Amino acid sequence: MSTLVLDNGAYFAKIGYSHEKVSVIPNSQFRTKTSRLKTFTANQLDEIKDPSGLFYILPFQKGYLVNWDVQRKVWDHLFGKEMFKVDFADTNIVITEPYFNFCSIQESMNEILFEEYQFQSALRINAGSLSAHRYFHENNSELCCIVVDSGFSFTHIVPYCRGRKMKGGICRINVGGKLLTNHLKEIISYRQLHVMDETHVINQVKEDVCYVSQDFYKDMEIAQLKGEDNTVMKDYVLPDFSSIKKGFCKPLEEMNFTGKYKTGEQILRLTNERFAVPEMLFHPSDIGIQEMGIPEALVNSINNMPEEMQPHFYKNIVLTGGNTLFPGFRDRVYKEVRALAPVEYDVSVVLPNNPICYSWEGGKLLAENPDFEEMAVTRDDYEENGHYICEEKFDI
Fold first, then answer.
1. Domain boundaries 2-127+357-394, CATH class
2. What is the rounded CA–CA span in Å between residue 45 and residue 54?
3. How does DSSP assign 351-367, residue by residue?
4. Lowest model confidence (mean pLDDT) among 33-47, 57-71, 288-302, 370-384
5. Does the keyword Cytoplasm apply (predicted)?
6. 177-278, CATH topology level
7. b/e per residue, 130-140, with b = 16+ CB within 10 A?
């Protein structure tokens, strides 16, 4: 039996057999301005010659799977002959779902996995639980860890003890990568250039130029300086999809501080947006979301745990998800948690080498675990007992 591990994120699906490498593939469909009638699915995005004004059709809304038609088409593509050539009669699946998922979504997922695709067995689990599994596997002397999963729709903070999630400490912040990209689109559209339709391009800009400030007010002062003293300023060359396929930052020596460039390149000049956008992860109230930032929520979550466990959580903070890739993210989380934590506790913040695929790697380990068969539900079990057996087994 082979096991397929699918970390079904709201933006990227991380998928691969447990004995192979992971593939990171967009979990959506796309339409372009030029060919409105043709729909591209998942990694067919690479075939689009001109992705300006790219229109996303996402299966997830606000972190929950709501558009099953789109999700089915993405899964058909992933499981089909172009990609993984899944032989359902001989395959188990480990699939992730969000925290606090709705029963109706869980039941639809059970039906699709067992009745439509006919997998031999399935395990539905939170991505954070897989990250915790991987962390405990690598640090087997530790009993507790707290996972920060900052993804496309939400940021979740979840404490784990002996591999089980502690429901009393789960905290959700309604800030994720989608909100950051949309905010950057608004700022650029207001200040320079109308880019409200350019989600694909501006998402790339965000990933290329944004960083987490270690001293917000100091960076704000630098961003107001003129000329070469302004070390925050970056000129970003936008793609035209004929000669420039992908946007890039102008090297420092080529930057023209007067703002005039002779060539036909389209330039975005970015200053305080570079750090003001990721700052929303630390201060959501800056844009009117009355919630705690990540460090404060971390401390709040740990404070909800029994006192004797708290030092163990402070010592094992694990960062996962795409937003943790902003330069300076880990240092800022460490600095702020250290300032809020009791003096006598050690604080350690771990950023894995690949925080996007960390939970998939946990799923791979779990699939090879001798206990895997105990945790999964087989198709025979499901046909005999229905959804009830899934609810009983999967709430881990």
1. alpha beta
2. 10
3. --S-TTTHHHHHHHHHH
4. 33-47
5. yes
6. Actin; Chain A, domain 4 (3.90.640)
7. bbbbbbbeeee
